[in-house]
Design a protein that fits this description.
Elements: E1 8-11, E2 18-21, E3 24-25, E4 28-29, H1 35-67, E5 88-91, E6 96-99, H2 126-300, E7 328-330, E8 339-341, H3 367-459, E9 463-474, E10 483-484, E11 490-497, E12 502-508, E13 517-518, E14 526-528, E15 537-544, E16 549-554, E17 560-570
Antiparallel strand pairs: 1-2, 3-4, 5-6, 7-8, 9-17, 10-16, 11-15, 11-17, 12-13, 12-14, 12-16
Length: about 575
């Protein structure tokens, strides 16, 4: 045939719903149903017969076409539908047949020079011509009968084609319904892909956050390493400060010892100064008395040498003031009987024996001189003590200066240590803040990781498989065990039997055989086998978004023999 029809069908037995081209068998529609086998063979035979008729009609049409509507219109009448007959003559010289020519009036054109017409050569028989025309009409009637028979067969073919078209329309309606379901499935797949994309985006975001958390943990480790380093430095500084404070404490104790010694020296010195002050006070009194005596004595002595008047002379108690006066003195100061006159020279100057020792210029025996010597001795002792005290004061001043320097250094060290401790406190506070923030970040990270783990657990690939029947017979009305599909989205069923399989899929929201619901006359909700291979009928299908509880039941009207049925659940 010159025209072909391509039919697209829905393969419901495929593991994934797909549209496939309908298979042809030697140009005929290939179906599994046995009721179509006879029709398929009849259509094949019909197509063969129609091909032969078409070939014959084409040949007849070609021949008639060569004879109809050839030449010009005769006597003004239309030539459409006329059967033209060509008259041929034989060219004896060339051994060829050539058509005869007519003029505009339909007269045969002849060459007068070459034409030799005699009554003997022209033998025109009307009866023969009528006989030929009769034969021609008979053949035309035969052809018309053939065409009528062909028309009947074409009408029958048209009826068959109409019936076929009706069945094709029915198949088209089924395909349209299948297309709708496939569209719905495609929508579900698109929705699933969208959800997968969303989950993928969530996982990508989770990966980014985990990377950020890893970065934060790395930064935190670095910060903690720096903190540990700083704490080590602080500990080293604190240890050094402890040693320094110990040294300062020792120096302070030593200073305290020196201060105690200095205080003892100062106390002793003050005591000696008090004693010295008392001695000086007594010496001052005696000096004052001596000064009074000396002043008195000086007032009684003459201001110059030479004879003096009585009023300017030393008065001595005697019986009479007449006559000269001899100066006497005692050799023993306490014995008046040792009084003797003093020797003077001619000039009235007192003679002193410095050779024999009988006379002496030593005035140490004088009370005033002795006291002055005592005073001088005391003054020498006081001067020595004052010198010693000055030395001690200088030493004390140096010690106090050194102690002041050390105290200043100690104060500076304490100030530095205080600043270090303040800085350490600030750093420890900052460290505590960082640790608190890090703890919060780690808590958030732990929460997010827990959420991610929950999400990954929920979307992780999971499968469950089981055998519902292992080569056992399933009677009509018999059902297999109820399957709980909780937590799964897809259920793939596959199996085999030794006879045709037609099982219904039942659904329920409760684990109860009485609550099971069957969807009749819906191919997606049935398990049907395909053509057997070596006497074994097989089937497989995948359902998704099913109710929680699923069951398979035999409503085919006959027993299913040696049924083996497996299923696999997946999310």
């Amino acid at each position: 045939m010159s025209n072909t029809l391509e039919i697209i069908g829905h393969d419901v037995n495929a593991s994934q719903n797909k549209r496939r081209a309908v298979q042809l068998n030697d140009g005929g529609l290939k179906v599994f149903a046995p009721e179509f086998a006879t029709l398929d063979q009849g259509i094949n035979n019909l197509e063969t017969y129609l091909d032969q008729v078409e070939t014959k009609l084409t040949s007849i049409d070609t021949r008639i076409g060569d004879s109809v509507n050839v030449g010009t219109t005769e006597y003004g009448e239309s030539a459409n539908g006329r059967l033209n007959v060509y008259a041929y003559g034989r060219d004896a010289s060339n051994g060829l047949m050539k058509p005869l020519k007519l003029d505009a009036s339909g007269r045969l054109e002849c060459s007068v020079d070459a034409l030799e017409v005699t009554a003997e050569t022209i033998n025109l028989s009307t009866d023969n011509l009528e006989a030929l025309i009769g034969q021609t009409n008979t053949k035309i009637d035969t052809a018309d009968a053939v065409l009528d028979a062909s028309l009947v067969k074409q009408t029958n073919i048209e009826t068959l084609i109409t019936s076929t078209n009706s069945k094709i329309d029915t198949a088209d309606a089924v395909l349209d319904a299948s297309l709708v379901k496939q569209t719905n499935i495609e929508t579900l797949i698109t929705s699933t892909n969208s959800k997968i994309d969303t989950a993928d985006a969530v996982l990508d975001a989770s990966l980014v956050k985990q990377t950020a958390i890893e970065t934060l943990i790395t930064t935190s480790n670095s910060v903690q390493d720096n903190v540990l380093t700083k704490l080590g430095e602080i500990e080293t500084t604190n240890n050094a400060n402890q040693v320094l404070l110990g040294t300062i404490d020792e120096d302070t104790n030593a200073i305290k010892g020196h201060v105690d010694g200095i205080e003892t020296l100062i106390t002793s010195t003050n005591s000696k100064i008090d004693t010295f002050d008392a001695v000086l006070d007594a010496s001052l009194v005696k000096h004052t008395n001596n000064e009074t005596l000396i002043t008195a004595m000086s007032a009684k002595l003459p201001a110059s040498l030479g004879a003096k008047s009585v009023a300017n002379s030393i008065s001595t108690c005697r019986d009479s003031d007449a006559g000269s006066y001899d100066m006497t003195a005692r050799t023993t100061i306490g014995n008046a009987s040792t009084t003797t006159a003093l020797l003077c020279d001619s000039g009235g100057r007192l003679q002193v024996d410095v050779i024999s020792g009988g006379g002496s210029t030593d005035v140490s025996a004088l009370s005033t001189h002795a006291k002055q010597d005592t005073i001088i001795g005391h003054l020498d002792g006081v001067e020595s003590k004052l010198d010693h005290l000055s030395d001690n004061i200088d030493t004390l001043d140096a010690v106090q200066d050194n102690a002041l320097t050390k105290l200043t250094n100690i104060e500076s060290l304490i100030t530095t240590a205080d600043a270090v401790l303040d800085a350490s406190l600030v750093k420890q506070t900052n460290l505590e803040t960082l640790i608190t923030a890090l703890d919060t970040v780690q808590d958030n990270a732990l929460t997010k990781l827990t959420n991610n783990e929950t999400l990954l657990t929920s979307i992780a690939p999971r499968t469950a498989t089981a055998t519902l029947s292992a080569a056992t017979n399933l009677a009509d009305g018999g059902a297999l065990a109820i399957v709980d599909t909780d937590g799964y989205r897809y259920m793939t069923i596959f199996g085999k039997a030794t006879n045709d399989i037609d099982l219904f899929i039942q659904y329920s929201l409760t684990n109860s055989a009485g609550a099971m619901i069957s969807l009749y006359n819906e191919t997606p909700y049935k398990l049907q086998s395909v053509s057997p291979i070596n006497g074994i009928y097989t089937f497989n299908t995948t359902i998704e978004h099913m109710a929680r509880y699923v069951r398979f039941i035999n409503f085919s009207g006959s027993q299913v023999n040696a049924l083996t049925l497996y299923y696999q659940l997946s999310n």
